[in-house]
Amino acid sequence: MHRVSYGTLSAVLGVLLVLTGLTVAVSYVDLGAFNVWLALGIASTKASLVLLFFMHIRDEGRLVVLSFLGTVLFLAIMIAFTFCDVAFRGHIGI
Amino acid sequence: MEPVRSFFDTPSPSRYSGALSWLLTTDHKRIGLMYLFVILFWFVVAMFLGGGMRLELMFRGRTLMGPESYNALFTLHGVIMVFLFIIPGIPAIFGNFFLPIQIGTDDVFFPRLNLLSWYLYIIGGLLALVTLFIGGPPDTGWTFYVPFSVGTQTNVSVAVFAAFVLGMASMLTGINFVTTVHRMRSEAMGWLQMPLFTWSIYATSWVQILATPVVAITLILIILERFLGVGLFDPARGGDPILYQHLFWIYSHPAVYIMILPGMGVISEVITVFARKPIFGYKAMALSSIAIAVVGSLVWAHHMYTSGMSDTAVFVFSLLTFLVAIPSAIKVFSWVATLYKGSILMTPPLFFSLCFIYLFSVGGLTGLVVGAAGADIHVHDTHFVVAHFHFTMFGGTGFAFFAALHHWWPKMFGRMYDFKRAYWAAVLITFGFLLHYIPMFILGLQGMPRRYYDYVAEFEAGNFVAGFGAVFMLVGLLLMLVNLLISLKRGTLAPSDPWGGTTLEWKTLSPPPLHNFVETPDIADYPYDFTDVVRDSSGDGGGV
Amino acid sequence: MKPAMDDRGKRLGMWLFLYTEVMLFGGLFVLYAVYFSMYASDFMAGGKELDRFFGTVNTVILLVSSLAVAASITAVQRNEKRASVVWLTAAILCGALFLINKYFEWSHKIHEGIYPGSDDLIYGEPGRNIFFGLYYIITGLHGIHIVIGMALLGVALLFTIKGRITGDNHVFLENAGLYWHLVDLFWIFIFPLFYLVL
């Protein structure tokens, strides 16, 4: 298996820490609903870094990459479909 | 050279003998057989629980039991049938035994994890048994709906924990099978050379992996609510009880595909073997298994039309429900098209499969009735729904399970059973089945609700007839099981390929040796090529 | 291929297990999403009651521990046993530190009368009850995963010391690491969702 050097690992940690600082910082700025999406966006970026460099997901090949994305997609669909109930409660008709 | 010994005579690991050679085995075949007997035990228990309910309903008023016992009975019947029989049934027994053989390898990828799954299954079963005797058996129905499941004084926590442990067992089996198919498949076998049973188990395993954890967390939440009273589903504390139903069905609807997909795989194998004809539309069959797994995971809220969820959701889920009928129908058409102009050899497994096609089609079509939002509001929570899902779960998966038992019994034990008794049993079960469930469709349309131990006068006739059906069915089921068990002692020895099958399990001995194959098997370009079978047995099946 | 030598297959099994964990937490995230949309203002108010400083420190601790685990794998691959042992010990200590922080955080909140089923929550705003209910359940479940992860890393540490995990055979360490990283991944999402909702 592919080796990741200490240098790369430390650099990734550095980026992760910066992103953590960033997400804390933007939480003090009121952007309305955009705050949530920004926080989730930063979290997803951090998650991708962990997956790519700490968990070496690319070394596992297509199957793992695709099925991992599939799992996340399935979770997203679960939430989205639940919202087609929750978001439309109290409306009559379609 | 001494004759090759079967796996019955070769313990694995070899240091154990006697009972330990079974209880500590890592051989997928032995584990499959251990599942077989435990699952059959639970099936018989739940069968009698169901029979008890039917006897109570035969006459109006209190005959055998009061409402509390009846509530406990239908809950346990549901929990045991769903979690201990239908879900693990085909994958854990036949998947374990035949998946590695069908892909030409000697075991599953994680043999010790496989044994652990079996023990989790046993623990889950024992916990379910415990609820019978301690603290009062649960009376919530197998769905454990809030708020009742959080408020009731019966032993819901243990029952729910049992379901959690059983879910773990099923999930770990799924992980094992997916890894096995990817990493241990014979190198000569491409994806489109895999037998359809393997395909269906593979698709099922993915659903097990992705959907089971959702019910696991849902069940944990019930236990937490019972002990801590967080109020996540309690409207008085800000919760939303309908969300519980969402979470529950996000697993439990895909779970019905966990139940039926392996059954469809079995039927595909049986039909093609006894029609002596390649399965019609192999690729469509393989892909429709995946399509059912995917689309079937997206239709959960069609159990909730009357729950008070939004009309938009009712519309969306009703539409998706109709979509899932398409891949299911592809399968039914393929089976029928395979039989068309085949040189059919009638045997008990084929007989069960033909009954399956008929009963499953009825179950599927009545599924569209309950899947249509308007019609469902009329029949929701009536006996119509009960009849519908028994047609799919019992008429479908149950009959596929019986077909699998008769199809692979000679391979697993190396003994042939008595055909005549098997046919009689099949006829009795099917006849009793129809007599039992058809009146329930009518009762449901007339408005008889499910889950009550008593009913009003106009429902008397239907319930009386259904009671007779139940008796026929019970007799048939017992006859079938006894016939199979007798064969272990008295049956004639089975040849390695009694039916003329072409997939790899028929290329090895009956019962198979420890490492499944004496020499590395040849992988055919196409798993269902019957040219040789038809040529070799011109007198047997009639030939083309 | 024979499973005994197939590290890739073993890791595939672990990944599949990770998917089940994702879906396990996923069920709770469904609840979070729905209740957040229902009680947005209560969730924001609830988030302000949590201690951002503790949350941030714990995030940093987990990120560092993830680095330590990844570095221990690099060390093993280079056959630097001592370095690997040091990295693993550091990762486990980080886990312990995380739990200690969590303990202080929880006990502080419980002391204030905020815990599942407490009068404060039940008779207060419904949205606030749900926010803290989810907070305890999700961080509690996450805490359990930290404990399991520490146990796995502990076994890996033992195996490394005893020489059962080596440069050629370190799939157990990799799988324990995958699990640990996943627990970190969950925290990466839990942190903004609870501590940083505006």
State the main characteristics.
heterotrimer; A: 94 residues; mainly alpha; 2 domains; flat; C: 198 residues; Four Helix Bundle (Hemerythrin (Met), subunit A); 7 helices; 0% strand
Layout of secondary structure:
The complex is a heterotrimer of chains A (94), B (544) and C (198).
Chain A: H1 6-26, H2 34-54, H3 62-86
Helix pairs in contact in A: 1-2
Chain B: H1 20-23, H2 28-58, H3 67-102, H4 111-133, H5 148-151, H6 156-184, H7 196-228, H8 241-275, H9 282-296, H10 311-339, H11 348-371, H12 373-379, H13 383-413, H14 419-446, H15 460-490, H16 531-536
Helix pairs in contact in B: 2-3, 2-4, 2-15, 3-4, 3-6, 3-7, 3-8, 3-13, 4-6, 6-7, 7-8, 7-9, 8-9, 8-10, 8-11, 8-13, 9-10, 10-11, 11-13, 11-14, 13-14, 14-15
Chain C: H1 7-38, H2 40-49, H3 52-77, H4 81-111, H5 119-122, H6 126-162, H7 171-195
Helix pairs in contact in C: 1-2, 1-6, 1-7, 2-6, 3-4, 3-7, 4-6, 6-7
Describe the structure.
The complex is a heterotrimer of chains A (about 90), B (about 550) and C (about 200). Chain A is mainly alpha-helical. Chain A is about 70% helix and about 0% strand. Chain A has two domains: about 1-60; about 60-95. Chain A has helices spanning about 5-25, 35-55, 60-85. Chain A is flat. With about 550 residues, chain B is an all-alpha fold. Chain B has a single domain (about 20-535), classed as Cytochrome C Oxidase, Chain A. Chain B has 16 helices and no strands. In chain B, about 60% of the residues are buried. Mean pLDDT of chain B is about 90; it is low at about 540-544. Chain C is built from seven helices and no strands. Chain C has about 200 residues and is mainly alpha-helical. The chains are: A mainly alpha (about 90), B mainly alpha (about 550), C mainly alpha (about 200). The interface of B and C includes residues 218 and 221 of B.
Q: What pattern of helices and strands is seen along the backbone of chain C?
A: HHHHHHH
What summary fits the major beta sheet of chain A? none
Gap between N and C termini of chain C:
53 Å
DSSP, total strands of chain C: 0
Report Rg of chain A: 18 Å
Q: Which structural class should the secondary elements of chain C be placed in?
A: mainly alpha
Large-scale geometry of chain A: flat
Instruction: State which percent range the strand residues of chain C make up.
Output: under 5%
Biggest sheet layout of chain C: none
Order of helices and strands of chain A: HHH
Portion in helices of chain A: over 70%
CATH architecture of chain C, please? Answer: Up-down Bundle
- What's the total count of β strands of chain A? 0
Count structural domains of chain A: 2
Average pLDDT level of chain A: 89
Alpha plus pi helix count of chain A: 3
Q: Briefly note the structural class of the backbone of chain A.
A: mainly alpha
Major interchain interface with per-chain residue totals: A-C, 45 and 46 residues
- Indicate the proportion of strand residues of chain A: under 5%
CATH class of chain C: Mainly Alpha
Please, what is the oligomeric state?
Answer: heterotrimer
